[in-house]
Amino acid sequence: MTTKAGLPTGRPTLADLRKAGTITSLEIVAAIDAYSRDPAAKRYRFASGHSLDIAAAVEGSADLAELMARPGPRDKVFRTAVTTIIMAAHPTAP
What we know:
By secondary structure, the protein is mainly α. It has one domain (14-87). It contains 5 helices and 2 strands. The chain has helices spanning 14-19, 25-37, 54-59, 63-68, 74-87; strands spanning 44-45, 51-52. The chain has a two-stranded antiparallel ribbon with strand order 1-2. Strand 1 (44-45) and strand 2 form a beta hairpin. The radius of gyration is 14 Å and the shape is globular. The model has no long low-confidence stretch (mean pLDDT 86).
């Protein structure tokens, strides 16, 4: 079931907010860049007012260790892992 804005009822994921146009791809890239520069940073606030503690999402994910164990360039694997994790995360609404 979805709302008039095209969001699923309940608490939307970052991917849901991106699909609905509430958060842009550029904002997601900026959030990942900010986390890459300072993994200890607290909540990242999007223009919509939604916020996400990227460090907590990454820390609470078993996926990162698994993805980092794969062969290949580490920077790309790291960014892919963080992207995967945060797209499934549930940001706090404004």
